[in-house]
């Protein structure tokens, strides 16, 4: 298997070019302030909060999780070496490491662990424990590697690993030596899947034996966090209790119970009925119902983008892969003509989607990066977007030689069995955009497939769809995690998902990923964004804000665009 | 030949008897209130399906986002959905899909099931054993789950949904016909026919099948009712036709039940349409059963 | 009798074998890919390949089937592809939830269905009978998901008097899960309030799931009571001047119950299927929702084992119905 993940090619490019760069990446906090559940005065201890999530955790072994619902639970239990400041997408603060040294252009990161931290099983946190965790992940068997997505992406397994060594230089100091400089390495370590587990617990749960591990299924006192996972009943509830020996400011709640309620409307009903006191991912159409019902709406600014992927060579790709769709692709793709692609962007009234599908809380996506990103401004200034202009779209179509007798026919795909923060109602969005396209003279053939079926994600990412919906939620705040991951060249070929063959794009991408100095990096990525947008390789549609709802007596919850949020600061009014 | 004809009712006499049975049944159906109401409801939806383009006040697939969630009013009797599409027009056009899927699924299900049941009941032996074990296996899997799997396998679409529902019906009809044939085998006139050497196959086709048909018809009508529910359930679970603009009633429910908190009418009207259609088919089935069941004849 | 049961049990073997093969082949014919389900939008060709290999999906089909079959024979149902949980453990944890819901639905259906059936039979031709017919007709015709949504809308949103999701009020009761039957666990924990709370949580999903069986049981009871009342021995008993209640209990009800028992058994099997929709709507952590999620996520291990166990239960229930039928009706002799 010599396939390389395109993520790795990015990482490799980053490392190669960065060797010569100097300067530190200053952490500036996100411009927009995140909302928090407010008021309440002096925090009071005690009480039980039942919180509605969409699901519970996939696995209870933090290293094997990669989704927000799992992180929600496990980040209360397990802590990482470094963390994001509350509400920020890019300001790093100490976690289990009180301080650290290391430059983005360097290869050595030294972490000084906090003294006096105990795991929930009573053992001490020390440098050996941290090393044991990273060694465990590095030595994951194939079965574990399948689930350890972020380790694969941030660090990599086997020869792909960016890490040269992880060493305990004294009892409380851990030194990571990288093979190459990697400016986003520290941001990766923030992800809850890099939470440190007690080595004693790793051993007692057979955590390295895929067939017999109980770390994935049984609640164990294995973390250092403010909450201890007390019980876990799949599809029913996860119960966390306060860790009274926590090293930092102790949690206020006695107990935190996460209850899985898949349907957002049902979550609101549960809040209204009083069986839960808070929930995440409010249905956008229910924002009014939340505030009118006397509940708090806590907004989480967007760190995501919904886009419409355009692929001019989709029909050739599908034919080469021997895919047949119903109805079948016929003839030359009209998307090969830049004017047709521009017509698509001009036909779409992005603003109209926001009240209908995002409860008026999202924002129009001019660039791929949401406004919560420190890079958004430099991206947006780089080019002039194609504004909504149906007449202009019709004109472009007729310039391209299409008319009623010879319409531009495009196959437009949407996923089923899925909602995402950036895509609350895929079928609804598809209908609305289809009509906008038809209004300027396109003939749209609707297709759908199940989200996690190769038919959608696989075929979509392998460039077999004329037009398709997809989106992205940022892992960390860097343009490389957005434009880079999506448009990286595979050798001399443009990313297959978009078939975005633009002169100069490959060089622009290489330059941008290698630039470590902040201003220059912003400018370099802006150049990439300009090339992509000028050629309409995709149409960024909406940054979908999300929101949580809480009962009036719940205070202290601070939302973060990345969705990684602590319940330790939450408190409830005494009854 | 003439000899057999004098001993047992020959085919044409059978047919005459059949006609007699049907005209008799029709006569009695006219006096059965459930049949009358059933026919009325189904007739109403059938007319709606046929004349949908003339009845619907708006294009069911076109909307305007500016008209999202209008509550019921004089312009939009049943309100509008998130796309600004007229819910009444969508229900009217949706009757075409519902009626079509129900009819197609029952036709496929009855014919396939009847063939299997006839083979099992006629050949007995290992043919019977194989077919009936297959039927047992299919019946042991929860029906909806089976339908979900079939639709996932065949792909989404009106015909695929009809086929999935038809497959659920096959074991039921196979069992039913086999049971009828087995009891007919022991009936006097079949024993008589066999004793005078009427060949087996013609015995099956000309003498036994016509007499086994009425339970199939009753069950078929009732299966139309369950087909409507099953189609809606598939649509509700997100396995309806692939074009999201398709006005399928189950899809209309699933598209909109997230808005139950603030626009309950979006869920109410398609739901009521489903219930009414199912009631109609059930009433018709009950009426037919009463009219066709010889024991109930007075 | 023993021979009959034995023969039926032997017959199970080919049926279950056929079932394993059918389910096994069917889910592999599905267009989905568990590897893609695991990786989501972050799937890449190399990543997919690696996951497939890790899950054993690259092995030849017959090897995979043998792994599956030999696993079952060792009572090892495997682990979920998605969350690594042991399928047997998860089944045992969820099955009580489904059984509890099914029993609630059955209690509702039988508890109301038999008395209503008898009432309408005895008041045959009156307005009570007509009302009963209309009600049972609507009951049979209303799809579970629509009924469930309407019940939620009325009793949980418009008039919030009953809980609409979950099995217990988690904020108020911290019940150790011993049997996973919430009603039993609350009693074991000595929580009377929790017991009542668990019962309250059963009401709406129980009604949603139990309405169709209720309507069917009501109809069958009515028809069967009318049949029996027309039998000679009942007429004789009435003519002898036996008190109405005695005739009802001793003669009518016992004989009329035979077909009702059959129908209840058949409904039990259907309830397991209906649980998919009910559990989805009421966020009930049972097997129905579990298997549905598995189908959607292509979690082969859960589908192939879960469906098999459900089917086995369905078949055993049917067998039990047949046997109880034989006990109730001595005229039936099995050989």
Helix content of chain B: over 70%
- Count of individual beta strands of chain B: 0
- Strand-residue fraction of chain C? under 5%
Query: Uncertain regions of chain C: pLDDT < 50 for 5+ in a row?
Result: none
Radius of gyration of chain C, whole Å: 24 Å
Q: Can you write the helix and strand succession of chain B as a string?
A: HHHHHHHHHHHH
Q: Give a count of the beta strands of chain C, DSSP E runs of length 2 or more.
A: 0
Which sheet architecture does the biggest sheet of chain C show?
A: none
Shape of chain C: globular
Oligomer: heterotrimer
Gross morphology of chain B is elongated
- Poorly predicted runs of chain B are 1-16
CA distance, first residue to last residue of chain B: 35 Å
SSE blueprint:
The complex is a heterotrimer of chains A (575), B (298) and C (335).
Chain A: H1 6-18, E1 48-53, H2 68-74, E2 82-84, E3 92-94, E4 97-101, E5 108-113, H3 127-138, H4 142-147, H5 149-155, E6 163-170, E7 173-178, H6 185-189, H7 199-204, E8 227-233, E9 237-242, E10 255-260, H8 264-273, E11 278-279, H9 287-292, E12 296-300, E13 304-310, H10 314-320, H11 338-347, H12 350-357, E14 363-364, H13 376-380, H14 390-399, E15 409-416, H15 426-439, E16 443-450, H16 454-461, E17 467-473, H17 483-487, H18 505-514, H19 518-534, E18 538-543, E19 546-550, E20 554-555, E21 571-572
Parallel strand pairs in A: 1-10, 1-11, 15-16, 15-17
Antiparallel strand pairs in A: 2-3, 4-5, 5-7, 6-7, 8-9, 9-10, 11-19, 12-19, 13-17, 13-18, 14-18, 20-21
Chain B: H1 2-7, H2 11-29, H3 33-50, H4 52-55, H5 87-123, H6 125-140, H7 143-154, H8 158-185, H9 188-195, H10 200-236, H11 249-256, H12 265-292
Chain C: H1 2-29, H2 34-39, H3 45-54, H4 61-73, H5 87-122, H6 127-141, H7 144-158, H8 182-188, H9 192-229, H10 232-239, H11 244-281, H12 287-297, H13 300-328
Helix pairs in contact in C: 1-13, 5-6, 5-9, 5-11, 6-9, 7-9, 7-11, 8-9, 9-11, 10-11, 11-12, 11-13, 12-13
What does this structure look like?
The complex is a heterotrimer of chains A (575), B (298) and C (335). The longest helix of chain A has 17 residues, at 518-534. Chain A has helices spanning 6-18, 68-74, 127-138, 142-147, 149-155, 185-189, 199-204, 264-273, 287-292, 314-320, 338-347, 350-357, 376-380, 390-399, 426-439, 454-461, 483-487, 505-514, 518-534; strands spanning 48-53, 82-84, 92-94, 97-101, 108-113, 163-170, 173-178, 227-233, 237-242, 255-260, 278-279, 296-300, 304-310, 363-364, 409-416, 443-450, 467-473, 538-543, 546-550, 554-555, 571-572. The model of chain A is unreliable at 1-34 (pLDDT under 50). In chain A, a hairpin with a 2-residue loop joins strand 6 (163-170) and strand 7. With 575 residues, chain A is α+β, with helices and mostly antiparallel strands. Chain A is globular, with a radius of gyration of 24 Å. Chain B has 298 residues and is mainly α. Chain B has 12 helices and no strands. Mean pLDDT of chain B is 83; it is low at 1-16. Chain C is an all-alpha fold and 335 residues long. Chain C has helices spanning 2-29, 34-39, 45-54, 61-73, 87-122, 127-141, 144-158, 182-188, 192-229, 232-239, 244-281, 287-297, 300-328. The longest helix of chain C is centred in the middle third of the chain and has 38 residues, at 192-229. The mean pLDDT of chain C is 81. Chains A and C meet through strand 1, helix 4, helix 5, strand 10 and helix 8 of A and helix 2, helix 3, helix 5, helix 7 and helix 12 of C.
